[in-house]
Amino acid sequence: MRSFLFVPGDSTRKYESAKKTAADALILDLEDSIAPDQKVVARGITRKMLDERSPGQKLYIRVNALDTDMTLGDLAAVMPGRPDGIVLPKCAGAADVNKLALYLDAFEAASGIGQGTTRIVTVATETARALLKVLDFENMSPRLWGMMWGAEDLAASLGATRNRTDGRYHSPFILARDLCLIGAAAAGVVAIDTIATDINDLEALKAEAIAARQDGFLAKAVIHPKHVDIVNAAFRPTDEEVMWAERVVAVFAGNPSGVARMDGKMLDKPHLRAAEKILASRGK
C-alpha cells in the first residue's frame, strides 16, 4: 500500500475517475469534502460506490468524527458494503480507536462480516489534544492498521495563520509529522504521510514523497488522480536499494551470529530487517 486517494463521497464522477488510477486504495470521504446539508445523501452514494468497486483496489471510508453524532449513521450506511477499512478523523488516542472498534464489532456481526476484518486508520494529528495522544497506543484494538498525519485542521486547532512558508512546514507541523511517524512505528502500524495541497506542483510532490519514504513512511495520501503515479514511484525502492538489500540478506543467510561484514562495514539485525522491508515493498 503506497497511495491513498481521497474521493468525495457524493461525487460519482470523481469516483469513476479515481477507479481508473493506480491508487492502491481510495478513501471515500463523508467528512470534510461534504457540505453539512449533503451528509445523509452522501452516505447513500458512498454505499453504491462500495458495490461498484474495482478489483484489487482497496476502499476505505472516512467517517465523521466521534464528537459529531454522525459516526454511527455513517457506519450504518456503509458497513453492509464491506469496506476494507474506516478512516477516523480527529482521533485522540486509544480510547477513540477502541470505541470505533466496538462499533465495528457490532456492524460486522449485523452484516455477516468476519470479526476483526475491517481495518482502522486514524488521522492522528488534527487537533492539539490528538497530537498529545499520538503515542497513546497501549491496549489499542488490533484493528488499528495505520496512522496518518494532517496539517490543515491542526492549524485551526492551534490558532496558526499558516502551516508553511515557501513550501516548508513550520515547526509545530514538523513535530506533528514526526510524532505520527514515531507513534506508528511504536504501535507497529503503517505511517501514512499527509497530502500535498498544491495540486499542480508535481516536483514538490515528488520531493515530499521521496523524503517521506526515506524517513520511514510507508504510504502517502493524495487528493488528485495525477498525484498517484508520482507517489507510487516514490515509494518504490530504487534499483540500488534493492541490490543492497539482496546483498545484505545473502550475507546473513546461514549466519547464526547475528553479525555480518559487507564492504568493510559491520552489519547487525537492524540492517537485515531494513533489507527485508525493502525487498518486501519492491513488488507493491
TrEMBL record:
GO terms for molecular function: lyase activity. The keyword Lipid metabolism does not apply. Its cofactor is Mg(2+). SUPFAM superfamilies: Phosphoenolpyruvate/pyruvate domain. It comes from Bradyrhizobium jicamae. Keywords: Lyase, Magnesium, Metal-binding. This is CoA ester lyase. Residues 2-225 form the HpcH/HpaI aldolase/citrate lyase domain.
